[in-house]
From TrEMBL:
Taxon lineage: Bacteria, Bacillati, Bacillota, Clostridia, Eubacteriales
GO CC terms, sorted: plasma membrane
Name the record gives this protein: AI-2E family transporter
The keyword Lipoprotein belongs to this UniProt entry's keyword annotation: no
Alphabetized Pfam families for the sequence: AI-2E_transport
Protein's organism: Candidatus Ventrousia excrementavium
InterPro entries: AI-2E-like (IPR002549)
Transmembrane segments: 9-33, 39-57, 78-100, 169-194, 238-259, 265-290, 297-316, 328-361
Membrane topology: Multi-pass membrane protein
GO BP, sorted A to Z: transmembrane transport
Primary localization: membrane
């Protein structure tokens, strides 16, 4: 056997041994992977925060400091980051300021109407008992062991108290851990944004040290495509949410629905979740309108279904699809598959991921057709 065959056999044997080892110790390896994931989770979240904040920060930095003097450009990164944070928190504060008071007021109205509702239920029960006396006779024949009921109730309360204590302790621990992770993620995100050029140079240096130059160039091209695609997706998602919120505000104003501004802002906020996020806003909006006027709540749901069909089948695929370079049909496929696999996170991630895969596959197909000297007339007709 020549050296090439021996090397291939060695690789095959090593691969088989590794596969056997993984299968035999699958639970241990899974536990190790979970431990590593929990260890690096704050940094992963921080990287996601940095990537999201980089979109408005880069826009502010490009437009605001394009012709700034050299002395001011020294501080452009920090100023742009602060302004981006101010804009994001201002928008969130405005939306919360619109939503929370109305929700609180509606809950207070609902609580105040409960006694009247209870009286109506009692009157209905009395009327039902008078109309059907056999029901009253049946209830009177039923005997209860009140001592057993009291004992059972006390035992249930005791168990609930113990469970509540354990849940409170667990929730407190999770809260502290979440706060610590949030602080670490925020600090890491700020560091990444302030030092992103330096970090990029270090990563490139490491890649060139480990891989051949041709592979490094291909990998950097893919990473650049992914970065641009994700940035465009975030921008397109925000534009789509703004369009949908405006549509709801205008339609509710025209048809004189209550809470037009608040529901429009709520729908715009929840619409950041692809395709299905607006349903969350619909449920809350319908609940608020239901307290004021049940009939209008029904028509609000009808209006929502109409606007949702327009948004989901026409506006969303074109706005987001054009922003990421993905045809409308594949946007719907990406949202459906991602939602089934990973829920809301999958919906957010699969559109840009599918866009990158689509661009790479399209480029590979064109290259293969060119290498095989196949005329475009063969596949365009």
């Amino acid at each position: 056997m020549d050296k090439t065959t021996i090397k291939q056999l060695a690789v095959l044997i090593v691969g088989a041994v590794l596969l056997y080892t993984v299968v035999q110790h699958l639970s241990l390896i899974w536990a190790l992977l979970l431990f590593i994931w929990q260890l690096f989770f704050p940094f992963f979240v921080g990287g996601c925060i940095a990537f999201i904040l980089n979109v408005p920060m880069r826009g502010i930095e490009t437009r605001l400091f394009a012709n700034a003097p050299a002395k001011l450009k020294r501080f452009q990164r920090g100023i742009s980051l602060v302004l981006a944070l101010v804009v994001i928190f201002a928008v969130l504060f405005f939306i919360v300021r619109l939503i929370v008071p109305e929700v609180t007021n509606s809950v207070e109205i609902l609580i105040s109407s409960l006694p009247a509702f209870g009286r109506r239920v009692a009157a209905w029960a009395t009327e039902l008992a008078q109309s059907f006396p056999e029901i009253s006779d049946l209830l009177n024949q039923i005997s209860f062991d009140w001592q057993a009921l009291v004992t059972s109730g006390l035992n249930t309360l005791k168990d609930m108290g113990q469970s509540l204590f354990n849940s409170t302790v667990g929730a407190a621990g999770s809260l502290v851990s979440g706060i610590v992770n949030a602080v670490i993620a925020s600090v890491f995100a700020i560091y990444v944004l302030l030092q992103k050029e330096k970090l990029a140079r270090q990563c490139k240096m490491l890649l060139y040290a480990l891989l051949p130059e041709r592979k490094v160039l291909s990998l950097l091209e893919i990473l650049e495509l992914a970065s641009k695609t994700f940035s465009r997706f975030l921008s397109g998602q925000c534009v789509e949410a703004l369009i949908l919120g405006t549509m709801f505000f205008v339609a509710m104003t025209i048809f004189r629905f209550p809470y037009a501004v608040m529901v429009g802002a709520l729908v715009a906020l929840t619409a950041l979740i692809p395709l299905v996020g607006a349903f969350i806003g619909c449920v809350i909006g319908a609940f608020l309108i239901l307290i004021v006027d049940p009939v209008r709540a029904f028509w609000f749901v009808i209006m929502f279904l109409v606007l949702q069909q327009i948004e989901g089948n026409l506006i969303y695929p074109h706005v987001v699809g054009n922003s990421v370079g993905l045809p409308s049909i594949w946007v719907l496929v990406a949202v459906t598959v991602g939602g089934n696999l990973m829920g809301i996170a999958g919906m957010l991630l699969f559109i840009p991921i599918c866009s990158v895969a689509y661009a790479l596959l399209r480029g590979w197909c064109y290259q293969r057709l060119k290498e095989r000297k196949i005329s475009p007339r063969r596949w365009k007709t």
